[in-house]
Amino acid sequence: MNPPTSESAAHLITLLASIMLVLQLLLVVQRMLVANIRVFATQSLLLAAIAAVVGYAYHAPHVYVVAVLTLAGKVIFLPWWLERLVRQIKIEQEIDAFVNVPAAMLICGAQTVLAYIVARPITSLERLGNNTLAVAIALMLIGFFLMINRRKAITQVLALLTMENGVMLAAIALTTYGMPLVVEIGIFFDVVVAVMVLGILVFRIRETFASMDVSKLNELKW
Amino acid sequence: MNLDLPALLAQTALLLLMAPLLSGLIKNWKAKLQNRRGPRIWQPYFDVVKFLRKDMVISEHASWIFLVTPYVVFVTALSAGLMVPMITAHAPMSLFGGALALVGLLALGRFFLALGGLDPASAFGGMGSSREMTLSAIAEPAMMLAIFTVAIAAGSTNLSQIVLASHGPHWKFLDPSHALAFAAMFIVLLAETGRIPVDNPATHLELTMIHEAMLLEYSGRYLALIEWGASIKQLVLMSLLANIFFPVGLAADATPAAFGLGLLFLVAKLVLLAGAVVLVETTNAKLRLFRVPDLLSVAFMLGTLALVSTFLF
Amino acid sequence: MLLISILCVPFVVGLLCLFARPHALMEALNIAGFASVLILGVKLFKTVLTNNGNAVTQWNEFLRADALSAWMVLLIAIVSLATSLYAVRYFRRDLANGTVTERGFREYYVLTPLFATGMLLVVLANNLGVMWIAVEATALSSVLLVALYNRKTSLEAAWKYVMLGGVGLVLALFGTIFTYAAAIGKTGGEMPSFNWSRLLAMAPQLDHHLITLAFIFVLVGYGTKAGLAPMHTWLPDAHSEAPSPTSAMLSGVSLKIAIYALVRFHILVTACLHSSFSSNLLIGFGLFSMLLAGPFILVQQNLKRMLAYSSLEHVGLIFVAVGMNAPLTVFGALLHMGYHALTKPVLFFAAGNIQQRFHTLDFQRIGSGLVRTMPVTALLLGLATVAVSGLPPFGLFVSELTVLAGSFTSNYAWASVVILISLIVVFCGVLNKMAGLLLGPSNGAHARETISLSNIAAMSLPLGTLLVFTVWLPDCLRQLMELAGNIIRGLP
Amino acid sequence: MENLPATLLNLSLTGYVLGAVAGVLFLRAEKLANIFTFGCASMASLCGVVSSVMVLVTGAAAANQSVQLLPSLIPYIHFTIRVDPLSAFFLLIVSLLGFALSTYSLGYAKGFFGRKNVGVLGAFFNALLLATVLTFVADNIWLFLIAWELMALTAYCLVTFDHEEAETRKAGVLYFIMAHIDAGCVILGFLLLFQASGDYSFASLHDIGAQMSSGKRDAAFLLFLIGFGIKAGIVPLHIWLPVAHPVAPSNVSALMSGVIIKTGIYGLIRVLFDFLGTPPLWWGVTMLTVGTISAVLGVLYALMEHDLKRLLAYHSIENIGIIVMGLGAALMFLHTGHTVLAALALIAGLYHTINHASFKGLLFLGAGAVLHATHTRNMEEMGGLIKRMPQTAFFFLIGAVAISALPPLNGFVSEWLTYQALLQGFGTTDSLMRLIFPLSGAMLALTGALAAACFVKAFGITFLAQPRSKQAEQAHEVSGSMRFGMGVLAAACVALGLFPTQFVQLLDPLTQQLTGQQISAQLSLANGLVLASLTEKSGTVSTLGISLMFVCLLPIPFALWLVFARKSKTRRGPTWDCGQRGLTPQMEYTATGFSKPIRMIFKALFRPRRDVQREYEFSPYFATTIRFESHVEEVFERRIYQPLQILILRVSRQIRALQAGSIHAYLLYIFVTLLSLLLLFAR
Fold it and tell me: ipTM of this predicted complex?
């Protein structure tokens, strides 16, 4: 049986999850690249915290592993690596979006509502916190939207990573224990490798196109 | 099957001998109506004999098709004639073919005639062939419809059977379908025999010739055969019209008296028809070539109406 | 041991190539590696058959091979082998031209075995999470292959491939987690297994809402990898810009791996929901893919892009066939997977020859009359075109007709009309383009092609296999496919 | 010996395979390839002729069983064949024509030596014959469809044999696309039947229509009509036919026009009479109407052609129309339960089928010989060939007379039977529908007369008068094997024309199979001399009798000559030239000029457009050069197919905009898909 839900842990998790969502919205608004990376790092930190809380509250030691991995990978390594990349390729700091901020906010709001609608029938299955699952789905959807809305390659990578955060949050929220450890570790390394591959590509694109604007990648069509 | 050899011979002779007479009669009457004296009724016989005696010039471009054509025209017209009941209801060759074979045989003659027109490399011949084939093609459906009307009523395509069936109690000329079919057939007759308003048999003006244009290179006995064949064809079609639609007086039994009576009736009917043709020819002007289809489409409509009316009544 | 060795052989080959110096050694390693995978694959398939259809498992069911997996292993092996044969000549020539750098050359020979390893792991892994990881691994290894030429366009293609693929995979991961979550609390307190076989065994107890949600995410996610419209947009770019051997792998098997993953979920969902929810979705997306492929092929200007769209159409057909869930359609789908895997590489190989000769893939710039300038390539390309258009004497005719016939035994007879229409439209486009390419006067200036024996062998091997298996389908293969079909249809 | 027909058939199939293999083996040795491929084909088809005749004569219960040709591929795919009377009849057609064509090809293919690969031609020729034979004898859906598609494929390869010409490639593409559409329809139709029967064998499909809902039955009928109709070339599905047939090598054109399009007829008969059960009235009416329209439009378009092979191709449409008329009438009779009449109409259709195969094959071979000799298909550049190629001309004339339905040749006989069926149909029903019989009969008459006009033109312009070009002037008679091939078909035309009653006996097992009636005895009178339409009273004809009559009447003109004209002299002179200085070929009537009256009469259909350009120095009446162009609109191509093609391409280009290269748009597609799925299903 599941261990009894600790009230305060649940509240804490909900709070942390909500902050993750807020940070996600901040990402949508934020136009500075480095700042974006740091917001992402913070968000990942919150994720690690949630994992730690879960591990503590539910006596699931191996969730600590997830927390540590997240901390090492998504809070420290990837942001560092991405910032280095940003410095290396000397990208302009401005990022132009397709949709202006108010409209983007509206869309994000709608997505959050949708996420709640989708998550509602299954909230009963959540092991912790209210609406953590909804937040996870919202994170994923907004991350997706972010990806569509931004022109710079590196922001798209970042958006992908926030989606990944959403997935991890869902994994923790839904399954309590997280998934089998092999899978967790595998997923983690895959993500890291993915980002590095992306980085290589970003670098090459920057070299070849003298720009980071992916909307200029439109030679292949039909 | 028993071949009635005397009847066969008699009808062949009748066809051969009567055909020029009919042509002569029409020419003569036409002249009379136009206030001319005109040629004698017997003139076509003399023409044929004269042509037969004459020397021939054959185009150096012509091939064997040109030489074969007169025979084909002559023989097909004659064979077609043997399928049509003339004096008795039993045509000698009726077993070998009925209305459809008759149409086919005439078409075969025309096919070769048109080829013969093209053969000597003259522009006139080509023109004549082209027009002849066109007009006959659009006359064909009307003719078929008219034939179908009577064939359906008789339940046979065999001309003798059609005539016999019309002897029966159900037949009456006043039947609208018969009247309409007759009208259609009459128009087709004008077209098929090259009469005004479709073609002018007397013209040799380049632009108006149809039938004559094809014959332009023929001379001597070949011309004789073709002309004779043409007049046989005319006789065949007219007796067809006469006997299918007015099957009166056909010899019922094989007595000389009945035959005589039959012959008399045939001649009378042909004379009447010839009169009608002459009347039409005299009172109308020749149509422009591209007007002819209008006339033939009238014939086609008449044929259709005839069919519809068999259905209605 | 068998399963592990199947996985290890290509993996080790990849690692060895990292350190091997001589070109010939790398090539030989690749060929030998894939040849042994093929042999092992045949062995696996025999084992599965002798096991009476029971799955071969290893490492406490971590690796599991049932008939479906065995079938996929065979496909992967044969396509990889043909590709490695073809690659020899291709990359030597590229290297001589300077089209590809020494580093790129090595990259290819290292990454391709890893790519294959990933695909093999997908089909052999029992754990759905591991399966996801493996799919991700195939994506990552192939991205660099797509970008191998380092041209502007190939970078663009790689970027689109990795971004769209990445998004797809995140969604697929979401779905995978939901699937796992659906099992929690149904196992009586134990931690539920993430193994597909276990999940299937307890399928009816799984949470319906979560499974529905999971399938949606998995469908969009793996559907992106499988090239289901409208998530297929990366496909023509990646397939056309990759080096031809990679295109062949991508089109020949990589797509089918994603199909495989999706089908595993489809089996689970159907077993759980007892409804045609997933079937309907598969059919809907499959038909849409088929219909969408047509217009693009009709007005296509690039040879390899046309081939890619043709793959889109075939993927759609496979999905529709699986979705219809009748014995014949599923059998036809498996058959189709096999035949298509044997056909597409040949087309891409031929396209590779053409590209190396004319340095373009644009139909207009290649011109016409390939039968004169490149007779051997043209002949093989022509035969493969006939095959891919679904005409006898090649197998795709049989498989397509099987699917169509099967649709009339299911409730989806109407779908066959759509299938036929799209097949005809695609055929019109392919025929028009190919006739213009192959036939006609040649523009003279070119000398006759020089073509090596290995090139011919690489191209005739799949085509010959296809022809052999069309006129003679061994009983054992048929049994294997029937077993696999039963698995897909959720029968014991 | 009981299974001799089956053995012979197997021998024949093997022969075709060997021929195809020989073609591949001797790719580099054209002389060997020529001899072996076409030699094999002629031997094989000879076996086919014997086999099919044996089946038809003996009624051959022995041959009427399924035979496994090869081991089956997958449990449900069997390669079984069965030669029932219907198959045997079509086998006879393909083998007869195949024999004539193969011998013809022995000479014809020499024209390709050094230019094209004869091995390829021979291999595909054999493969096409093989596929066609398999189509006719297939005993289950799978084998039929495989053969059907193989036939389309090999025919495509043969059509594009001369692929250096852009016209040929275009024609090939059009042909193959239409063939593919047709295969699609046929597949769907068969699968509808399969759905009802649950089995693929033809035996299980017999009368399956009775177990189908009427909606599905009608759908199947329409699918088959479109599918087989495309193959047969009925209007308005014919557009590929006049394009594809002419560009193929002439032996292939003959095969395609003579046999391949008959596979459509075979399919229609097989499906409508064997599978679909008693038809509703509108099936027959539709078939009859479609047939009539095809016949009339086919011949009208043929008249407008001055490309000899295109002209012949259009005539194929016409003749297919006539065949379909017979089938349509038969269907209507089956509906009303008049099985005897149905048998009559069916015989008319079948008779015309074999007739068309023989005379159209003959005409295409003649055209091929002309092409061989003059290297042009344009009639305006021919003329005078009768003196240079007398035998070819003679054979062509036989074909021309036969196709124009003139007595006493075979075209006349089958059209006569069609007329009879139509006429007797009038009495079978009281509904207004019966008017369709005489009206289509009238249209048949129009068709026949126009066909005569067309062949006066075709023969006259091609063979008669002065040569219009250098090539025509230098033409020479073709080789012996080519003349032999034509001779065989000409003999077939004459034989089928003169001995209809004997031939009709062969059809007895066939009508027994399809309508349950044997009527050859009713059709024969006077020991087979006379062909009667069921009874003596309802109409008789005797082509043999007519020919005898010709012979008997011929003495009359000779007698006249003896009596009157023995002294008259004959001399050759120039044609009358109106006093000009000699006729030149330019003054002859052209093919275009010949058909002008018809073009004008039917201008509502043709919408002729002409374009005259004069160049002159002083006054337009003294032109130095005149350029005259005349076009005829192909109504279906211009009004249906072209707009459709343009529309499809335009829509395709618009759809293409979906993939315009923007990764954001691509992401959006996925996003929208995900959102809509979530909204739809995950609430």
Answer: 0.92
Of A165, A195, A173, the closest CA to residue A42 belongs to: A165
How far is the C-alpha of B107 from the C-alpha of B115, rounded, in Å? 12
Distance separating alpha carbons of residues D255 and D237, to the nearest angstrom:
20
With respect to residue A221, please indicate whether it lies within any of the assigned structural domains.
Answer: no
User: Is residue A173 in some structural domain?
Assistant: yes
- Domain identity same for D671 and D618: no
In a shared domain, residues D150 and D236: yes
How many residues are listed for chain C in this entry? 492
Residues D406 and D297 grouped into a single domain: yes
Name the residue among A166, A170, A186 with its Cβ closest to that of C129.
Answer: A186
**Mean of the per-residue pLDDT values of chain C:** 90
**CB-CB contact of C270 with C278 (8 Å):** yes
| Residue D76 domain boundaries | 1-277
Q: d(Cα C164, Cα C169) in Å, to the nearest integer? A: 9
CB contact under 8 A, B221 and D432: no
For residue A101, is it within any domain? yes
Contact C274, C287 (CB under 8 A): no
> How many domains does chain D contain in total?
4
Please check whether residues D441 and D552 belong to one and the same domain: yes
Cβ–Cβ below 8 Å for A215 and D682: no
Residue with tokens 């078929």: B144
Beta bridge partners of C267: none
pTM of the model: 0.94
The verdict on residue D56 lying in a domain is yes
Answer whether C471 touches D (CB < 8 Å).
yes
- Span D209-262, pLDDT tens digits: 899 999 999 999 999 999 999 999 998 899 999 999 999 999 999 999 999 999
Q: Given a cut of 70, is residue D340 above it in pLDDT?
A: yes
- Paired residues of D612 in beta bridges: D628
Q: Which of D677, D678, D680, D683 to mutate to test the interface with C (most CBs of C within 10 A)?
A: D677
Q: How far apart are CA C111 and CA C142, in angstroms?
A: 7
CB distance from C115 to chain A under 8 Å? no
Residues D218 and D333 in one domain: no
- Which of B65, B97, B73, B66 lies closest to B84, judged by CA? B97
Q: Which residue carries 């959102």 as its tokens?
A: D675
Question: Which single residue is written with the structure tokens 């690692």?
Answer: C15
Report if residue D300 sits inside a domain. yes
Residues C437/C303, Cβ–Cβ less than 8 Å: yes
Looking at the domain assignment, is residue D540 inside a domain? Answer: yes
Q: Work out the angle between the directed axes of helices B64-81 and B99-118 (0-180°, nearest 10).
A: 160
Mark C136-158 as b/e (b = at least 16 C-beta within 10 Å).
bbbbbbbbbbbbbbbeeebbbbb
CA terminus-to-terminus distance, chain D: 75
Domain that residue A163 falls in: 7-216
Q: Touching check for D667 and chain A: CB below 8 Å?
A: yes
Q: How many domains does chain A have?
A: 1
Q: CA-based diameter of chain A, in Å?
A: 58
Q: Provide the 3-class DSSP secondary structure of residue C230.
A: coil
Work out the percent of chain B whose per-residue pLDDT is above 90: 50
Minimal CA separation from A118 to chain D, in Å: 5
Residues D225 and D285 in one domain: no
Kindly state whether residue A222 falls inside one of the protein's structural domains.
no
In-domain check, residue D374: yes
- Asked if D273 and D393 sit in the same domain, the reply is no
- Interface check for D642 against chain B (CB to CB < 8 A): the answer is no
Best mutation site among D649, D656, D663, D670 for testing chain A: the one with the most A CBs within 10 Å?
Answer: D663
Closest CA to D90 of D144, D44, D53: D53
Give the dihedral sign, CA A170/A172/A176/A182.
positive
> Where do the structural domains in chain B lie, given as residue ranges?
5-312
pLDDT of residue D58: 82
CB contact under 8 A, A170 and C177: yes
